[in-house]
Amino acid sequence: MQVAPAIIQFLANEFQLDPDHLNPDTSFTTDLGLTAEQLTDLLQRLQESLGVILPEDKVPAIATIGNLLELFEEDDAPF
């Protein structure tokens, strides 16, 4: 499975946006208006939907879509 397109599509569906409006610089808090609690909930739904596991120690560093996608580019990607 190509994870990046699946993540973008998941986020587009969640926010009812065209996937083309989401990019690596899109901030979950500033651009999408999420609180920390809402972001945690969103990431939980993403994990359940795509069957992936995000390392708990990396979650606090997720501020943008790019931060999220970078987790899946690492050698020890959680999928």
Automatic annotation (TrEMBL):
Pfam families in alphabetical order: PP-binding
InterPro entries: ACP-like_sf (IPR036736), PP-bd_ACP (IPR009081)
Segments forming domain Carrier: 7-71
Gene3D superfamilies: ACP-like (1.10.1200.10)
Protein name: Acyl carrier protein
The species this protein was found in: Candidatus Amesbacteria bacterium GW2011_GWC2_45_19
